[in-house]
Design brief:
The structure is a homodimer. Chain A is an alpha/beta fold and about 300 residues long. The first copy, chain A, folds into two domains: about 130 residues, ATPase, nucleotide binding domain (Nucleotidyltransferase, domain 5, 2-Layer Sandwich); about 160 residues, 2-Layer Sandwich (Nucleotidyltransferase, domain 5), CATH 3.30.420. Helix content of chain A is about 35%, strand content about 20%. In chain A, α1 packs parallel to α2. The mean pLDDT of chain A is about 95. At the A-B interface, α6 of A face α6 of B.
């Protein structure tokens, strides 16, 4: 029997990446489609995939790792849809419904960060773990993960970027840019927050710019909170900010300093450089995450 | 076949409560033993239980819900022990080892809050849920819970009381009493923190004392963080502070205000009084939690 062909759809705010691959993580074909309206974008996604299926053979399952908020719970009446979002035109967009109408095969639908977490678990930096989180810090900040080997859902899904952290207005008078919460973690530490505070894009700031000390401080406060709340076995950082490898040692030191030896684990006390790590799959985390979701859909069907 | 007899041990910082019961939640015998040294306390626990076993018949499983930090992971070399703690004499106390030497039956060992969460899941305020947290606010602040129907562990276990939250020193100049973190959540909002800030025990403060508005504010900040991090389907509050029923409406309003309609769930937007609730088992949460752990040990053995 030939290796089952799986479909990975990474739905992002600016583009959808569609890929065809298999359970080894191999990508056979890939395409980028701009995120415009749901019907145009999904129409082009479907057209691309139908063309690939004619060429490569029948698909067996689809994984969709999408921007949120979204409803990932199959038993829910709004399953498969985008929930109310400031993104024009996308509130209530029926992602799974549209894709399922074109392909009558199993689909798994989850957040981009849960997808990335599953990809890291299968092929990346979380292979031997049962409880860990994946956090992306870029245009926005979001987190997902596995707890006891299962993806995090609950009421809806985590919104880790929106926790409140201490904000010393004397040290940092910037008021924050989150439209809902102003100075939540995302409002203080996302890429656009860095740009608004310092007047230039984060990626143009040199490694010795004071922006990075402050950024490492906010990231460390948030990670310490996740550690106390969830007790993850590892924290994986993805997104644009995680490419700034020079801030990892600062984050490590600050997390240790904030926790102040309260949590007596060798991973935190002695091996923190292996505890808070960059994404193992790098740029591929999103699409391989969607592929891992497709693999999960395929396994459930068996 | 007769109903299996189960043992519940609730290990607290001031007393150990030992009970004999069964899977319906019925308690047949109970005793309070002061927490002194590990060998004296556990010796008296064992003596009481051996006496009860002669009277009531053979025990089938034991659940131990204990103060922490502790090691709840059976595969770990320090499983069953108390981890480094400021509590004199208890660091490395081998709780499971001592009890297992006296009773050769299955044992489940977990934190007091994970025990309480499991009890609430079986008999209390979390019966229909798969993902929720139980938070105790009293002498200390601690949290546990179930995620996808499994108790939270991970690296060690959650230490939810030690998250950092915004602290406005102008509104509240009190610097916090946590010996590790000063103004973490526990340092600002535990019973001893309330007493240190206002100069009198929390339970003697009248409902219109400004202490409660501040307390509700800190609790709401912490709960909003747990909601963003974990997406629980419900939050159950136990411990001494949760007996102050007048603060629940303040907590509800503040959580809604902090989240600011970002999480579009009817449970938060419209039914928050059923979302953040007092412990269903009240004073019995601890011992019934240990009994639920015993039931789990018994089931695993089957």
């Amino acid at each position: 029997m030939s290796i089952p062909i799986l479909v990975a759809i990474e739905g992002g705010g600016t583009k959808f990446i569609c890929a065809v691959g298999n359970q080894t993580g191999e990508i056979l074909a890939k395409n980028h489609i701009p995120t415009t309206t749901p019907s145009e974008t999904l129409g082009r996604v479907i057209a691309f995939l139908q063309e690939q299926e004619r060429e490569l053979g029948q698909f067996r399952a689809i994984g969709i790792a999408c921007f949120g908020p979204l409803d990932p719970q199959p038993a829910s009446p709004t399953y498969g849809k985008i929930l109310p979002t400031p993104k024009p035109g996308w509130t209530n967009a029926d992602i799974v419904g549209k894709i399922q109408a074109a392909f009558d095969i199993p689909i798994t639908f989850d957040t981009d960060v849960n997808g990335a977490a599953l990809g890291e678990w299968r092929w990346g930096a979380a292979r031997e773990l049962d409880t860990f989180i994946y956090l992306t810090i870029g245009t926005g900040i979001g987190g997902g993960g596995l707890i006891n080997n299962q993806l995090m859902h609950g009421l809806i899904h985590p919104e880790m970027g929106h926790i409140r952290i201490p904000h010393d207005f004397e040290a940092d008078p910037f008021e924050g840019i989150c439209p809902f919460h102003k100075d939540c973690f995302e409002g203080l530490a996302s890429g656009p927050a860095i740009q608004a505070r310092w007047g230039q894009p984060a990626e143009t700031l040199s490694p010795d710019h004071p922006a990075w000390k402050l950024e490492a401080h906010y990231i460390a406060l948030a990670l310490a909170n996740y550690i106390c709340t969830l007790s993850p076995q590892r924290i994986i950082l993805g997104g644009g900010v995680s490419k700034q490898t020079h801030i990892f040692p600062q984050i490590h030191n600050e997390v240790q300093s904030i926790l102040n030896k309260y949590i007596q684990s060798p991973q935190i006390l002695a091996h923190i450089q292996d505890y808070i790590v960059p994404a193992g799959l790098g740029e591929q985390a999103g699409v391989l995450g969607a592929l891992a979701l497709a693999q999960q859909a395929f396994n459930v069907k068996l």
